[in-house]
Amino acid sequence: MKLKMKKLILLLFTALFVFTINGLSQSYEVIYLNCNQEVKSKIDQNKIDAINILDGIKSVQIIGISGLGLSQSINIEKQLSSKTDVISFVLNEDNTSISIVSLPSFTKDSFKEILDSFQAVITGYSVKFVIEE
Fold first, then answer.
1. Which uninterrupted H or E stretch holds 90?
2. Three-class DSSP category at 14
């Protein structure tokens, strides 16, 4: 009985590891497919140097927003300011668009999680990956 339990636990940990690696590789693949050749070269060099493949890369996101009031925008700015993977952001005057410069780990879904609590919606989205200067 103990042997079966050990095998089951080992199988569960193996499955968890495979799914975790698969999830990380999918994020990387999306970034790699959506970046220019300069960024791809940086990613490839990071692999050769055996460092984090996204080290030295940042994302520039332009996000259209609808349904965001003044008090909500202040709260969103507070939440974004507390995020360690957000480098900078600018919300336009009429609260219909925001530009976010961040580490690649801060994604559209990351911003959507913040926005959902304010019952606002994303109306447009673009992202560009660039090398940090």
1. strand 86-91
2. helix
Which of the four pLDDT bands, split at 50, 70 and 90, describes residue 11?
low
Q: Are strands 57-66 and 86-91 parallel, antiparallel or unpaired?
A: unpaired
Output the six-digit token pair for 29. 């693949």
Whole-model pTM: value is 0.76
Convert the pLDDT of each residue in 47-75 to its tens digit: 899 998 889 999 999 999 998 888 888 89
pLDDT tens-place string over residues 16-28? 444 443 334 447 7
> How far is residue 70's CA from residue 77's CA, in Å, rounded to a whole number?
11
Q: How far from the centroid of its chain's Cα atoms is residue 132's Cα?
A: 16
What b-and-e string marks burial along 13-42, b requiring 16 or more CB atoms within 10 Å of the CB? eeeeeeeeeeeeeeeeeebbeebeeebeeb
Contact residues for 129 (Cβ-Cβ < 8 A; gap 6+): 31, 34, 35, 36, 39, 57, 58, 59, 60, 104
Asked if 101 and 31 count as a contact pair (C-beta separation under 8 A), the reply is no
Residue 26's H or E segment, with its range, is helix 2-33
